[in-house]
Amino acid sequence: MKLLVTGGAGFIGSAFVRLVAGRADLDVVNVDALTYAGNLENLASVASSPRYRFVKADITSFDDIEKVFSEEKPDAVVHFAAESHVDRSILMPDAFVRTNVFGTFTLLEAAKRHKTARFVHVSTDEVYGSLDEPHEADENYPLKPSSPYSASKAGSDLLALSYYTTFKLPVLVTRASNNYGPCQFPEKLIPLMISNALEGKPLPIYGDGMQVRDWLFVDDHCRGILSLVEKGRPGEVYNIGGSRSLPNIEVVKRIIAATGQTDKLMTYVTDRPGHDRRYALTSEKLEKETGWKTLVPFEEGLAETVKWYRENTDWVSRVKSGEYKTYYTRNYGDR
Ligand code: NAD
Ligand code: DAU
To answer: CA 239, CA 261: separation in Å to the nearest integer?
Structure first.
């Protein structure tokens, strides 16, 4: 089977490509525009495989995407490519609408024209919005996105599902909780706190730090997606959660301990506008239908992640140079 993976140079997409590269029955074409978040260094271990091919292309370009589908004739699409960071969506929402909504539309149209046998649209638990205790979202929970990022993902989820209802394109939607692990761009909570802690820099905590997120190790997420490529039912939505809810402050304290730093680095800053207080979801449907379960406990995954950032300081300093500095000053400068 040939998979067309979009966004395969990003954090989760590259973990997925590395996972499927270990499978002799799968060929992979990775389509990525290499934005600030795309990094081919993440794919060094698979670059020379005869079953892997990289195509630099923008998913919002009909011409680029038509060319890829005509040449590659994929059996399935696994669609990761997106603008993925909430804070950036507050500063510059236009790219989120363009890539997440229009880019998904471009891919759906190509898959429809080429009668692609499967289309897995990778989405997020953020589309359900903030949930009060003790509620957790199942796949029928109402959508109530808060940020331009989550609204653009909710829009793309609904567009993808409409292609199943209207055109019988075999679309599946996945909604995962907060991922963490190696190769994550240091704009998200865990890699930002680890890399700042390792450099002895302040750890910026939004508001009171009591917001709750459910943490999912990236390889567990990727195994969940692969199980749905193989066994998921078209037209269905599947949650993928880590079953490990923690307030942000607790995550930061564990990172301080793991990096040998002190609490003095913790710096409370102005809250994120529209900040969702709590995400929570159940993955029972995925577990029952595919037998998937998480394999990596948070303590183990966090230790592995800290180790990776310690050992890959060159990777970190390369991605933290240039555009990152401008973003960091803009996002944190006036907090
Ligand atoms: P990321 O920002 O690390 O990577 C995104 C990738 O998409 C990059 O390689 C980038 O170059 C590529 N890309 C962006 N715009 C593109 C375009 N116009 N054309 C082609 N490629 C483009 O993102 P991530 O954290 O790996 O997230 C991947 C997917 O998973 C996203 O759809 C995101 O919404 C979803 N998701 C993420 C999380 C999380 O915790 N990170 C959780 C649930 C769902
Ligand atoms: O829930 C899944 C989503 O998780 C994905 O769809 C998104 O792509 C991904 O970015 C992530 O969104 P969050 O907004 O939850 O993740 P982030 O890492 O940006 O923030 C996690 C929590 O930490 C959130 O409550 C905000 C807080 N935070 C974040 C940063 C970057 C801080 O307190 N300080 C920070 O500097």
So the answer is: 35
**Which are the contacts of 79, defined by CB distance < 8 A and separation ≥ 6?**
6, 7, 104, 107, 119, 120, 121, 122
Name, in order, each residue with C-beta under 8 angstroms of 230's C-beta and a sequence gap of 6 or more.
290
Q: Is the CB of 294 within 6 Å of ligand 2?
A: no
| Active-site annotation holds for 276 | no
pTM for the structure as a whole: 0.99
Active-site residue, 311 included? no
Does the fold of domain 189-212+244-281+291-324 match that of domain 2-180+216-240? no
User: Is 149 an annotated catalytic residue?
Assistant: yes
Please write the tens of the pLDDT for every residue from 10-52: 999 999 999 999 899 999 999 999 999 999 999 999 999 999 9
Atom of ligand 2 nearest to the CA of 187: 31
- Please work out whether the CB of residue 156 comes within 6 Å of at least one atom of ligand 1: no
Task: Please report the pLDDT score of residue 163 as a whole number.
Answer: 99
Is the separation of the CB atoms in 182 and 304 below 8 Å?
A: yes
- The pLDDT tens digits of the residues spanning 194-252 come to 999 999 999 999 999 999 999 999 999 999 999 999 999 999 999 999 999 999 999 99
pLDDT tens per residue across span 50-94 = 999 999 999 999 999 999 999 999 999 999 999 999 999 999 999
* CATH number, span 2-180+216-240: 3.40.50.720
Does 78 contact ligand 1 (Cβ within 6 A)?
no
CA-based nearest residue to 63, from 115, 106, 108 = 106
Rounding to the nearest 10 degrees, give the CA dihedral for residues 180, 184, 186, 189: -20
Instruction: Please give the CATH number for the structural domain made up of 189-212+244-281+291-324.
Output: 3.90.25.10
- Is residue 76 within 8 A of residue 69, CB to CB? The reply is no
Q: Which ligand is nearest to the CA of 98?
A: 1
The domain locations on the chain are 2-180+216-240, 189-212+244-281+291-324
Q: Which ligand sits nearest to residue 78's alpha carbon?
A: 1
